[in-house]
From TrEMBL:
It holds the Pfam family Phage_GPD. It comes from the Bacteria. This is Phage late control D family protein. The lineage of its organism: Bacteria, Pseudomonadati, Pseudomonadota, Alphaproteobacteria, Hyphomicrobiales.
Length: 348
């Protein structure tokens, strides 16, 4: 069976499962209209500031569809008629493109409109505070509510300088230092540890179990292994105010010969330790990656654990999901692509 682009969807259609979507635009339910005209819809759930997106292409031949406005709020969900629909999130429309001959509309939306003030460079000093308070200020300037893991919210910050740096960059930099991720999701700035398969409230995320029957079409699994990290150590300098000297905190055990050294010293040993642990986790996760294409799995989400079973010994281990892409091909097929990395859990 061919879609409107002339692509054979037969290998990607699941017997007994009828794709379904749910969509609101500024509160108005357009699900039926959209589904009847939809050529393609892609929803991306990822880690980081610019990863959560929605793109919808519709057939705009007669009768014409009213073009949504840039800045409109769109809510979207998907699944199957037989098992139900799961809400994926809310997005802000950032672009509406109109193609002619054939007549098509492509609507692009993001979980957060980063064209606004969050990209402005700021000069700000934070002293004797916590990560929770800093992220609270950032979220407020972005117009978002803050959702931060309790273990991160209470981390003390003796001094932090924001020098000609955007709030987007600062939020990412702080999260990376703590082996965490900061991302706008559904009207909130979510800050949570990486690779722990837990929600921002600390609850365990349900793992995604994948069996051979879940794989969609040929060439649906790819594992990429990389060399062991070249950095065997992570070195974080810090200011010892009692002696006026620069000391170092060192973590070993990554297997490489070289050392990764932070350029600027941290304010104290605790900050240096957390930064070193975060960097070591980042290096550990770079050891390999997994890509899978499944028949639609609306429950798949970034940061959850992926547990393949019965596929291959190189695949059947626990992975940490970094990106999920849901694709609806017309109203005929629903696929979920997953990218994942090793969890990066290491010991001191």
């Amino acid at each position: 069976m061919l879609d409107r682009f002339g692509i054979d969807l037969a290998p990607f259609m699941r017997d007994g499962h009828t794709p379904a979507i749910w969509c609101l635009v500024d509160g108005q339910n357009v699900s039926d209209l959209l589904f009847s005209r939809m050529m393609r819809a892609e929803v991306v759930d990822g880690i980081g500031m610019r990863n959560d997106t929605l793109a919808i292409t519709v057939d705009n031949s007669q009768p014409k569809i009213a073009r949504p406005k840039v800045g409109a709020r769109i809510e979207f969900g998907g699944g199957y008629k037989e098992t139900g629909i799961i809400r994926f999130g809310s997005y802000t429309i950032t672009e509406v493109a109109h193609e002619f001959y054939p007549d098509r509309l492509t609507i692009t939306a993001k979980a957060f409109d980063d064209r606004k003030a969050a990209k402005e460079r700021r000069n700000r000093a934070y002293a004797d505070t916590t990560l929770g308070q800093i992220y609270g200020e950032i979220a407020g300037r972005m117009g978002l509510a803050l959702a931060i893991a309790p273990a991160l919210a209470t981390v003390k910050v003796s001094y932090l300088a924001q020098r000609a740096e955007s709030d987007l960059h600062l939020a990412t930099r702080l999260a990376r230092r703590e082996n965490a991720a900061a991302a706008p999701k559904d009207g909130r700035l979510v800050v949570a540890p990486l690779g722990q398969a837990r929600s921002v409230t600390g609850q365990a995320l349900p793992p995604l179990v994948v069996k051979p029957a879940d794989l969609a079409g040929p060439g649906s699994v790819k594992v990429t292994e990389t060399e062991a990290p070249t950095h065997g150590q992570v070195v974080a300098p810090w200011n010892d105010r009692a002696t006026g000297r620069i000391r170092t905190f060192t973590l070993s055990g990554l297997g490489g010969a070289a050392a990764f050294t932070f350029r600027d010293p941290f304010q104290n040993e605790a900050d240096a330790r957390r930064a070193a642990e975060g960097k070591r986790g980042e290096l550990a996760r770079a050891r390999g990656k997994l890509w899978m294409r499944l028949y639609g799995r609306p429950t798949a989400q970034a940061e959850a654990n992926l547990t393949p079973a019965g596929i291959d010994p190189a695949v059947d281990v626990t992975w940490s999901i970094t990106k999920v892409k849901h694709t609806f091909a017309a109203n005929l097929a629903y696929l979920t692509e997953i990218e994942a990395v090793p969890p990066g859990k290491t010991t001191s």
